[in-house]
Amino acid sequence: MDAPNLVSHAGYTHLSEAAAAELFRRILAGCRVTRPQGPPVLILDLDGTLMDNRPRTLAIVHDLAKMWRDRHPEAASALEKCTVDRLGYLLSDSLRRMHIVDPVLVGEATEYWRERFFTDDDLRHDVALVGSVNFVRACHELGATIVYLTGRDLPMMGLGTFASLRTLGYPLGVAGVEIILKPDATMADEAFKRMVCPTLARVGHVIASFDNEPANCNLFKEAFPHADIVFVDTQHVPGAPPLRNDVDVIGDFAAALPLTPSSPPRDGEM
Fold first, then answer.
1. What pLDDT score does 9 carry?
2. Which of 240, 165, 195, 205 is closest to 43 using CA atoms?
3. How many domains would you assign to the chain?
4. Tell me: the pLDDT tens digits for 63-101?
5. pLDDT value for 200
6. Residue 1 lies in a domain
7. Residue 264 maps to a domain
């Protein structure tokens, strides 16, 4: 039988609703406490952590269906019927679920997806994970410095990232908010975060970090052993390393909703 504060899911054991609420309550309380090292700091990933980027892929897939309608009608029909819940981490896996396995079509679809997925324009399709906006806003309003640390790159995705954060209502453009993006798209996400991690102590006292990649969560727990490091179990790269057993696991931020007031963007925020 599971411990009362744990709930079994495929692959990972999530905190129960009560345990997750206690985690969020502890983090929110920590946002009020400034230490000699500086203000409390939250490190937050974007894709798969605060935001669901599957609608971005879905929009690209549906546009590809229009292009294929005449040349590949059967494949186009399968793409048109695709829904968010049928999308996996890898596009090739998603296509296989739609019975699109011809190497030529898979290659063409992958190239089309890659040309759009990692650019500014289609970031507008991303949606916020349940409870994430309220939670991040509450932490910022209580005094925490928010650091968005993302694997997105600045040249190709910077403007779209700013616009997406603003549209969805996350804190942006005010004191106590920083965004750190990769300098270029060729750098591996884990290597980038490993490089940046030691510099985050300059911002203040890290009290929590949220990420959807086990490798990054393990890295943050090594760097900040006394912080609450949280794995958001949405999607992650295949073949990820085992998650440390001292990292908490949640599926979204729903347990934080009763603890955080609803607050629309304030005047003056970007």
1. 66
2. 205
3. 2
4. 999 999 999 999 999 999 999 999 999 999 999 999 999
5. 94
6. no
7. no
Treating both helix axes as pointing N-terminal to C-terminal, what angle do 54-68 and 73-80 enclose, rounded to 10 degrees? 150
Cα angle: 258, vertex 123, 15; to 5 degrees:
35
Asked if residue 266 belongs to a domain, the reply is: no
Q: Is residue 85 domain-shared with residue 100, that is, in the same domain? A: yes
**Listed residues 73, 90, 124: the one ending a domain:** 124
Report the sign of the C-alpha dihedral through residues 43, 59, 256, 89, in that order.
negative
Domain containing 60 equals 54-124
Q: Which DSSP state fits 122?
A: G
CA 254 to chain centroid, in Å, comes to: 15
- Model-level pTM? 0.92
Question: To the nearest whole number, what is the mean pLDDT of the chain?
Answer: 93
Residues in the chain, pLDDT under 70: 1-4, 6-10, 263-270
Please tell me whether residues 185 and 61 are part of one structural domain: no
